Amino acid sequence: MKREKVLAMLLAGGQGTRLRTLTKDIAKPAVPFGGKYRIIDFPLSNAANSGITDIGILTQYKPFQLNEHIGIGSHWDFDRNTGGLRILSPYTNEAGGRWYQGTANAIYENISFIDHVDPNYVLILSGDHIYKMDYKKMLEFHKEKNAQATISVIEVPWEEASRFGIMATDEEGQIVEFAEKPEKPKSNLASMGIYIFDWPVLREYLIEDIKNPDSSNDFGKDIIPTMLQDGKKMVAYTFEGYWKDVGTIKSYWEANMDLLSEDDTLNVYDRSWRIFTKNKNLPPQFVSDTAEVYNSLINEGCIVEGHLDRCVLFSEVRVKQDAYVHNSVVLSNATIEEGARVYNAVVMEGVTVKKGQVIGDKDNGKVFLVSEDTIIEE
Question: Which residues, 6 or more positions from 92, have their beta carbon under 8 angstroms from its beta carbon?
Answer without folding.
Answer: 98
